Amino acid sequence: MPLPPDLIADLHLSDLAAEPQWPSALVAGAAHYADAPLRAMPSPIDGALLGHYAPATAGLVNHAVEAAHGAYLKWRSVPAPLRGELVRCIGNKIRQRKAALAQLITLETGKIVAEAEGEVQECIDICDFALGLSRQLHGLTMASERPQHRMMEQWLPLGAVGVITAFNFPMAVWSWNAMLALVCGDAVVWKPSEKTPLCAIALQRVVEESVDELSERVPAHICQLILGEQAAGERMAAHPLLPLLSATGSTRMGRSVAQQVAARLGRSLLELGGNNAAIVTPSADLELALRAIVFAAAGTAGQRCTSLRRLIVHDSVIDTVCARLTQAFDSLPVGDPRVEGTLVGPLIDADSYWAMQQALQAAEQQGAVRLSGGGRLEDGVPAGGHYVRPALLRVRGNLPVVREETFAPILYVMPYSELLDAIDLNNGVSQGLSSAIFTDSLREAEAFIGPAGSDCGIVNLNIGTSGAEIGAAFGGEKDSGGGREAGSDAWKNYMRRVSNTINYGDSLPLAQGIRFGQG
User: Fold this and answer.
1) What protein family is recorded (predicted)?
2) pTM confidence score
3) Measured between alpha carbons, how far is 419 from 273 in angstroms, rounded to an integer?
4) Which residues sit opposite 156 in a β-bridge?
5) Burial of 347 (0-12, 13-18, 19+ CB in 10 A)
6) Architecture of the domain delimited by 23-236+481-498
7) Known catalytic residue at 271
8) Dihedrals φ, ψ of 292, to 5°?
9) Fold of the domain built from segment(s) 276-474
10) Is residue 518 very low, low, confident or very high in pLDDT (cuts 50, 70, 90)?
11) Calpha distance 30→349 (Å, rounded)
12) Which residues contact 46 (CB under 8 A, 6 or more apart)?
């Protein structure tokens, strides 16, 4: 199943698709092809090949970083509102290609059409958000204790920023980082997941065309793309010309990246795993809660970092909730994500399927009772894909397997009797990304979102754990990395702060009343 010719044309990729293989990198406006063994690019829908590429070599990674650094030296002096104009142009081109980009996401990740279109819309939204920020990158002015002195802080461009993204959001997470970095005056080097290179190539083409349109005012080659595996990411983490590395993926990957970046005293922005929980209290609106739970647990085939993994339900309603969820999970339409009405597409690959099966086996060995799902579907779905029915298990609490994140649609349901016990269960894992509570009690709600409540970076009330908007900072605590992207003041990640003291008088008083020498 190679890419359809009309899709290739809509994405403006005809020149690259004409080659026997896809490029290993798009650097300094040119396609580069590494002399390395080819990697197959299968679609999770049916395993059919979308093409091949050779992972970028160390030389290509260095070339990309050096090219980005060179572009940054020019881009940093371009006024921020003009940098916003580039982001506006990128956003408009994404709008024009929304349907084609969403189709590509579906082919490469197996997302249903509605979710793929939602991801592209997220790219558009962050472009709009970053455009507004381009006129609001402000510091502060502070009163000085010295006469005829003024203090202020400035936020200045940081440098070339490295971005490593995961397969599950192959476009949105790049846009969260790249659009803010661009308006902040930084250049970007992007290494996408090795499982979703075509989504990256399509977006890189959007950027290249946007830069070309504004070539009289925008320096060339401010964004570079390298396609590679772990080794390429490690080279980026170690590179001294990348003062910031933003990485999204597993906690294991994040630890490795953080250590490599810290060894050279660089900055890292980490968005890592989540083991997200929701609490259902006796006063909860069950109809609302059940709708939210099913989407959060089964949407994107459980392959969001914010997917619901653990459901903590009060003793008085747990039997009802389990019965209703069993019915819902058993009836969810699982199948080809391109078909209208499908709500759950395939897992990304065989490794994900087997990780899910191992987790289910371990859970049952540890005393879990399976209520629904978990098995592979082979009838009525495309051959070659790994389709599963979302699994529902009842457990006593945070079993060892429950404390580990499995990137698949598994929902563990556990009971509680007192709210403090439920909060302890919510916080009783090493991850701290997203959480939620369903309640009509003001006291319960405030307890959960307050300082003694959830220890996660995202704490929701009467909505699920997934589906964040770009207006609020996104990220988590503990093993979830501590990073924050999009929203609020996340732009400060991509800039350096400078403190200035300005003497507009003709004397030189010292701070703290110090007298030194004459005068």
Assistant:
1) Belongs to the aldehyde dehydrogenase family.
2) 0.96
3) 25
4) 496
5) buried
6) 3-Layer(aba) Sandwich (3.40)
7) yes
8) -65, -40
9) Aldehyde Dehydrogenase; Chain A, domain 2 (3.40.309)
10) low
11) 31
12) 1, 382, 383, 384, 385
